[in-house]
Structure formats: structure tokens, C-alpha cells
Write a structure and sequence with these properties.
The chain folds into 2 domains: 102 residues, DNA polymerase, domain 1; 165 residues, hpI Integrase, Chain A, CATH 1.10.443.10. The chain has 12 helices and 3 strands; from the N terminus they run αααααααβββααααα. It has a 3-stranded antiparallel β-sheet. A hairpin with a 4-residue loop joins β1 and β2.
């Protein structure tokens, strides 16, 4: 990891190096954690000079939270700050620089109910795909982009990083080599998507290089271009609300859960570290548990002879 221009406390820098080298966190995650910890150091230094974050009592963090509430900070933002601080304090405790993690088990109560992600309905998803023509080479590539985002639940960076060799033609699978946290995974390609992908590969030609590339210089497509493709498709489909690549990824997971796919399988397909991360999609169940119980109550008990 490159040395920062304005380093923090050596212990904090050690924690950030641990996140990068051992925990294998993405560079953007490291930047986010660094910004959070720098902010906490600055905010808490006024009331607690000459004290490190891991030397502060729980009351100091509670007081800081109250100040942030008065500034209209969102619960989601504060929960992320607490998570980053909790990770640092746990690291410092494990290396023996403190005797406890005062934030261990401390969470914001108002974050218990997570905001459901923005997703398309299944008719809207079909409408979006239908709006993508296949009447030219550039149009067919744009159609493949939308199909892969929705049909395989890819992140934008994962889609951009795909190479021709990542399509397994024997197993009908997609290999994501550079997922979040450098985790690899394979994703089954839906049959109808695979048929169109094969046609695209035959037209694309070659066995090496990026799966998606620019027409002029044959460079790998970037995330900015992917976003524009999705936005243009949404406009053609007549969808009035914003649609992004992440919307299609969320829709993929939501529709799988709505179809009854096991949470652990969805977590694996999405590249989550655990099914707990996938719990945000439980909103699709809505009243289904109640309906199941009601249906059970309607069943007539068997009469024993």
C-alpha cells in the first residue's frame, strides 16, 4: 500500500495496512475507512486531546453521535462510522494495545430496519430487455451488457473486468476473477442469456482480451460507459425512475428470492461474504410468512380411524 501524504497515528496506519494486505479489502474501502477514522480523530480531539480513539470511553462516542444527530447526519452514515471505528478498536484490542473494545455489541437501534434496495419489477425488467435492440454490432453488445447485469447479478466493475476466457462454454458458467475483496466466484448463465452470449462471442471473435470493448480502439469498456448503456435502455423502455447497473444487480437477487431460492445460494451468486449481507433482500417476502401460516390453518386435520 502506498504511503499516504498525510498519515494518521501509526497504529491506525497499521490497521489500514492490515485491511489491505490481510483482509484483502478493496482500495476504495480502505479510502472510505481512512476518511472515517480521520474524521473521528478530528471530531473527538476537541473534547479529548491527547487521547487515541481506542482510549476513549463509550460515553465519548455516544456524545459524538448526539452531536452528529443535531447536524442531521443520517442513521445509515453514522452506522457506517461506528462499524469502521469498531473494526479499528477490535484490531487494537487483538494486538494488545487496549484491554477492551468499548464499541463491541454497540449498534444504532434505528438501523435495525434496513431500507430495501431499489429494484425493478419482473415486468419492468422484461420491458428493459425488450427495449434493447439487436439490429447492429454496437446494439448487440449493449444488449449483452443489460442481460449480464440482470441475468448474472454482476457489479459494474466485475462486468468491465470480464475477459473472453472467463466464459466457460462447457459448464455454461461465468468466472468472476476480480470480485469485491478479490473473491472469485462462478455464476451459472441462464439458458436464454447463454444463447445470446454465444452469438455475441461468435461475432466478437478471438479468444483473448476483454469481453466488452470499444468499437474504435478495442479498449475495455469502463464503468461510465456501462452506466450510460443502462440509462439509455431505461429511457427507451419508458421507465420514469432512475435505473442504474446496481438496480439490475438488486433486481437479480430480489427476483431469485421471490422465486424461493435459498438465501445462502443467493449470497454465493452475489459474491457476499455471508448470507447476512443478503438479508437486505428479505423485503420481498412481505406477507408471505403470514400467508403460509394462514394457509396452514385452513387445512383440515386428518381424521384418525
Amino acid at each position: 500500500m502506498n504511503a499516504p501524504k498525510d498519515p494518521l497515528d501509526p497504529v491506525i496506519e497499521g490497521y489500514l495496512a492490515y485491511l489491505a494486505d490481510v483482509a484483502r479489502k478493496a482500495p476504495r474501502t480502505i479510502v472510505d475507512v481512512r476518511c472515517t477514522l480521520r474524521r473521528l480523530v478530528g471530531d473527538l480531539a476537541a473534547d479529548h486531546p491527547d487521547q487515541s480513539l481506542w482510549q476513549l470511553p463509550l460515553e465519548a462516542y455516544i456524545h459524538w453521535l448526539g452531536q452528529q444527530r443535531q447536524k442531521q447526519a443520517s442513521g445509515r452514515s453514522l452506522a457506517k462510522c461506528l462499524s469502521h471505528a469498531r473494526g479499528l478498536l477490535n484490531y487494537v484490542w487483538r494486538i494488545g494495545r487496549s484491554d477492551r473494545n468499548v464499541l463491541d455489541g454497540f449498534d444504532l437501534q434505528d438501523e435495525a430496519r434496513r431500507v430495501p434496495p431499489d429494484v425493478l419489477t419482473e415486468p419492468e425488467a422484461r420491458q428493459l430487455v425488450t427495449s434493447c435492440p439487436a439490429d447492429s454490432v454496437p446494439a448487440r453488445q449493449e444488449r449483452i451488457i443489460v442481460l449480464l447485469l440482470y441475468g448474472c447479478g454482476l457489479r459494474t466493475d466485475e462486468l468491465c473486468s470480464l475477459d473472453l476466457a472467463d466464459v466457460d462454454r462447457e459448464k455454461h458458467e461465468l468466472l468472476v476473477r476480480r470480485g469485491k475483496g478479490d473473491r472469485q466466484r462462478t455464476i451459472p448463465i441462464p439458458a436464454r442469456l447463454y444463447t445470446e452470449l454465444l452469438a455475441y462471442l461468435a461475432e466478437r471473435g478471438g479468444r483473448r482480451g476483454p469481453l466488452l470493448r470499444t468499437a474504435a480502439k478495442h479498449c475495455r469498456l469502463n464503468a461510465h460507459r456501462i452506466c450510460h448503456v443502462v440509462q439509455d435502455a431505461a429511457v427507451r423502455a419508458g421507465l420514469t425512475r432512475p435505473v442504474t447497473p446496481k438496480t439490475l444487480r438488486h433486481s437479480y437477487a430480489t427476483h431469485l428470492m421471490d422465486a424461493g431460492v435459498d438465501l445462502a445460494i443467493i449470497a454465493s451468486l452475489m459474491g457476499h461474504r455471508s448470507p447476512q449481507e443478503t438479508g437486505v433482500y428479505l423485503h420481498v417476502l412481505q406477507d408471505k410468512p403470514r400467508q403460509a401460516v394462514d394457509q396452514l390453518g385452513k387445512q383440515k386435520p386428518e381424521v384418525q380411524p
